[in-house]
């Protein structure tokens, strides 16, 4: 991949809002229309994504973990690379940032500690002018992940939606707070908030249409606004009290009985 290394700041202007690069994607990644959300569709690897422009020293890259998937080990990887994603040949990305992309190119990434970033958490990461890679989860302490990142050339942010991490969303790092009602995206669809017709109302607000599903229990009686509020408040389904691991787009008319799709997996909704 040496031919794709960028030694001059010839990419997009640093002031542009960060988005995921539209074409340099792992084989399992799907982006939403705004290129702010990345979903890994299957398996536990092939989830590499890049920022669409270089990141300045000290500039925070902020993302939210939208969805976790049980059954895998390890989670989100993040870091920086000299690879210009606009010059990465199609289908040339390896399955993993660590160690594959690091072996093949000037890339410096690290794994967040296990259990450090859960669904709904906001992760910020940055590299200092001294080449130190830091991360911070929510309002927690700064985590020094690496201290050997060479400076002096453009660096793009690189993230690996790996293992238990199923989907992430890029955020505005300058915001003092982030909304708790999140527009969750699966398969490029932002959850709509239409008014409900008779028999399809959200069982919490009785106004908006029930259009979301709690994972893994499968209950789908809630609009996305109420679903995310429940997820943020208690993370327990009001119908069965199971722990909520993710909020997904529901399919089909909600049924109010007790056997409506229990024990579904995240893969059923992606």
TrEMBL record:
Chain coiled-coil ranges: none
Listed name of the protein: E3 ubiquitin-protein ligase NEURL3
Keyword Zinc-finger attributed: yes
A molecular function (GO) term: zinc ion binding
Origin: domain of life: Eukaryota
Keyword Nucleotidyltransferase assigned: no
Pfam families xrefs: Neuralized, zf-C3HC4_3
Keyword annotations of the record: Metal-binding, Zinc, Zinc-finger
GO cellular component: early endosome
Any one Gene Ontology BP term: ubiquitin-dependent endocytosis
InterPro entries xrefs: B30.2/SPRY_sf, Neuralized, NHR_dom, Znf_RING, Znf_RING/FYVE/PHD
